[in-house]
Amino acid sequence: MSIYTALRAGVSGLTANSSALAAISDNIVNVNTVGYKRSTVDFSALVNAQNSDTTYNAGGVLPLTRQQISLQGSLEQSRSTTDLAISGDGFFIVSPNSNQLSNGGSVLFTRAGSFTIDAHGYMVNAQGLYLQAWPVNSDGSVISSPTSLSAIEPVNISGVGGLAEASANVDINANLNSDQAAYTGAYTAGDLALGNVSAHFESSLEVYDSLGAPRTISFGFLKTGPNEWQVEVYARPDTNITGGAATGGLLATGEVLYNTDGTVQSVDTGLQNFTIDWAVSTGAAQQDLNLDLRGVAQNAKSFGVTSVTVDGVPPGDLVGLILEGDGFLTAQFSNGRARALYQIPLATFVNPNGLAPDQGGAFRTTLESGLYNINAANAGGAGRVVSGALEASNVDLAQEFTNLITTQRAYSAASRIITTADQMLEELLMVKR
After folding, report:
1. Which is deepest, 187, 284, 306, 428, by most CB within 10 Å?
2. pLDDT, tens digit, for every residue of 3-39?
3. Is the pTM value of this prediction over 0.90?
4. Side-chain half-sphere exposure of 360, counting CA atoms within 13 A
């Protein structure tokens, strides 16, 4: 009887609009949830077989729920550099635990990039999901794969420190007084280092060894002719180098000749490149040093050092993380150096709307979504990773309130169908009485 099918249609209307109300409720309460994707309920008409042209059997309605995953929310600025957002297509690869994905880890995908560093050094978002990335090798290379998770690992910065860099180049700009009287006594290489002969001019500077420790080396200049100077380089204290006590810490010695205009004519090769053999007690490795004395002029003015340039740095502490081009997560250290630690990849899908929702606002693959494709940012259809920003929910609050009113009226109308059908059945029963 058509009245019974009307009852079923009314019940299906109540069920469908209840589902719509639930989806709208989720959307409204998650309007401020980072990376949230709004849910919608589409209605599909059900058709019953008709026995004749003179009667009609109501089919009702079927609710179909889906999430608008591919619709990007607005990017909002954040004060934290570890907050990440994606401008364009793609998802961060995450896991609910810190296991390697190829070794018992569970892979999920999310747009919620409110990442922070936890007590163990892992980058975890507000939902407790661990960010996954390609590690950057010491030579700056990255082993990546568009389909394999074996090269990806959880981002962890615990124990990351700025490595020391040994000094390799020293440039000196100075002046030697041309009015200085030449030394007329007997001179043997090493006399300045041992203190047997007093240098006409001496200056010291610090270089860094392989461990980043500052080491003092001195330069002694002795005029031996009108345009001739003997130069010695020696370590202080002399015990810092192997056998230094016997040689006064001598590292290099040679002659510098000048032109009549005060510029350098030539520098002995032994002064330009030499090796420092640090004593075993220092723990440092042998160190090659290039010395540039072309900036040491000879003019008729007092002795003095204008400038000294020395490379190398001591060890540094981690002071910050920044995101650079193509998703490279770079550590900044207190010694002024920076080093790329990870490259954050993005996963893309043929049909992102086919992904299934999972814990923490993340998604997992389904047959409808297809397999993932892993690419660096700005490559292979993946979007750009933005630091210091978060993707807001794609919920339009005004639209949700409109849908809320519409759903309420539709629910009331469906309930009215049941009331009317019930009254008609009551009338039918009264006929029998």
Report:
1. 284
2. 878 888 888 889 999 999 999 999 999 999 999 999 9
3. no
4. 23
